Amino acid sequence: MVDDNELERLRDIAVPAPDGEAKARALAAAMQAFDLDERISAVPQGTPAGLRLTERAQKLWRDIMQRKLIATPAITALVALPIASYAAFEMLKEQPPVIGGNGTVTETLADKPAAQKPAPEQPAINEPLAAAPAKAKKTDADAEYRANSQVVPATPAKPATEVDGLVKQEAAPDALPPPAPAESGQFAAGGKDGSRSRVMMNFKPQSQDEAARADQAPAGEAAAMPASPPAMVDSKLMVQPAPMPADQMQPQEENRDRIETFKTNPVHETAQDPVSTFSIDVDTASYSFVRRSLKEGALPQADTVRVEEMINYFPYDWKGPDSAAAPFNSTVTVMPTPWNEHTKLMHVAIKGFDVKPAEQPKANLVFLIDVSGSMDEPDKLPLLKSAFRLLVNKLKADDTVSIVTYAGNAGTVLMPTKAAERQKILAAIDNLAPGGSTAGEEGIREAYKLAQQSFVKDGVNRVMLATDGDFNVGQTDDDDLKRLIEKERKTGVFLSVFGFGRGNLNDQMMQTIAQNGNGTAAYIDTLAEAEKVLVEDASSTLFTIAKDVKIQVEFNPAAVSEYRLVGYETRALKREDFNNDRVDAGDIGSGHSVTAVYEITLKGSGGEQVDPLRYGQATVDNGGVANAGEYAFVKIRYKLPNENVSKLITTPVTAANEVKSFDAAGTDQRFSVAVAAFGQKLRDEDQTANFGYDRIAEIANAARGADPFGYRAEFLSLVRLAASLDGNK
């Protein structure tokens, strides 16, 4: 026991004063500790993160229990409520809840657990905040989160001021904080007292490396998702995760359109290469594809623009033959070139004999319909079904319809049925549903088999393939399919192809099998286009009046020094192919028109692009040379539908075919030239580089003529769209 007297004596003893040496040692120790602390912990800008709510409660409870201030369970129960109240008070004091518009408390990002990171190196207080990103060392996730935090735009506020080491932004009354410049690396945080003060918090923008890593991160990772701009509710700042961008919400479908690439026809020197040979083309797919691209707000890819298909999309009133004995008639016009004053255009127009409805032969049609999974889009199978309903309503009662579908495998949906049973045919079309892979080759074989079963002698026997062109089961190679089609066409069954949709369109395959199946290729992007192809142009689509039609033009070197064929690049033939009846070429349907345009340079005009030869210059003088006054000689070779031996039609081109001015040419000639110029412009060809869209529209508008279906009016709108997309060049 300690004596109470001793305690009293100790209490009364005076404390000795420290000497000067002791004071110096104590001050040195304190300064050393202060300096060490300064080196370890840099002064942060903004408010440092405190303990989370649960951590505060656990620390308080641990401290109480360690000091053994609570001895019994009863006392424990008594202090539980004060501890909870204290924890709530601390949370509300440091981060008030954000009240949403519906009165509910919204959890903010600050309440969510964050990965522990090393303390970042902060810039000095007196350094500009814009310099902070250069020194900050954060993890990628932290940088991505902060870099994508933005502030809601607001009315201008007063300049930021520095108070107690923090940058304070005074906003105008009832105004949201202004957005910080992207390079400043700042966003605004709300004040704790409900006032309009905001603290500008520092963050690190993404570097190029971090952005690249974010782009490579798998879709759906939280670090790759930027936060929404902070929303101000009841004077508080709420940062919420941003909704995922539309291009990340769903995987981007790969564009697998297959388009044949080709080079524009070059200029030929007549003295060296006087003969041009090609197969006629009555396909129209390119025009529809171009139209869809422009209406969707994009210039078409150059290889989707086949100029001849654009020209031949429109009906023209060329002079036709008087009887089916001569299945077509040709008209040649020579006129000045609107885009080059030194050249002329040789315009060749062919018009097929128009079979009267009463004389149309019976039709045996097999609808070969792609119902694979890739057709499950509104502009594919649903549009296809509506299109074929239009065709069925156009058929005569004694025509025959069969339906074959293919997906994972081929199947017969409708055996040969007379068109008189229209409702049965339409019901079979309506019941089609997509699903599975694409066994196109098997479907083609099955369709030809059905066509042979109901073959009509001296009639129309045709397979009508409707697809997006995605063949991925069986024979998928274009050359293999070409050989299959060539074999089947010898039986008298022809094939036409109708393309639907985008992103999976195999235009190259469609062109291949249509050209070798004695048929046409069309692209249907709207129901109006379906009506044009399958109703208004049904005769030319279904009823062939001539097959294997080839054109060969021989230019006279004495009159023409150079020439260039506009379009038909994918239809070029060798010179010797013209007289070879085994070589396949295009077909002409009832009432169909075909147009070809050559740009020619007359001898001595000064518009030559090829320098003349210095030695042995090839020239043709008028000394005994026959037909020296002709510009060219046009030859057309064709076969009747049921014959295998070709016939020949020839037309000399002389000054009698020439008109003195471009405006003196016919309305249809001038409009077709405007379309030719537009196609070349879209392909960005040199010849029309300085020929503006405004001039094309001017020519087309002046030559609009009769336009009962509005096709030419629509063309003018496409020219205007292209002009706006191409910068009005």
Key structural traits:
6-stranded mixed β-sheet, Rossmann fold, 3 domains, 20 helices, Immunoglobulin-like, 729 residues, alpha+beta, elongated, 5-stranded antiparallel β-sheet
Protein described:
By secondary structure, the protein is of the alpha+beta class. It has 3 domains: 123-249, no CATH class; 268-355 and 545-606 and 626-725, Gamma-adaptin ear (GAE) domain (Immunoglobulin-like); 357-541, von Willebrand factor, type A domain (Rossmann fold, 3-Layer(aba) Sandwich), CATH 3.40.50. The chain is built from 20 helices and 24 strands. The strands form 6 sheets. It has a 6-stranded mixed beta sheet with strand order 15-14-13-16-17-18, with helices on both faces. A 5-stranded antiparallel beta sheet has the order 9-20-22-12-11. Strands 10, 19, 21, 23 and 24 form a 5-stranded antiparallel beta sheet that branches. Strand 5 (186-190) and strand 6 form a beta hairpin. Helix 3 (53-66) runs antiparallel to helix 4, helix 14 (478-489) runs parallel beside helix 15 (507-516) and helix 18 (667-682) runs antiparallel to helix 19 (693-702). It starts with a helix and ends with a helix. Mean pLDDT is 75; it is low at 41-48, 97-242, 246-252 and 616-620.
Explain briefly what this protein structure is.
The protein is elongated.
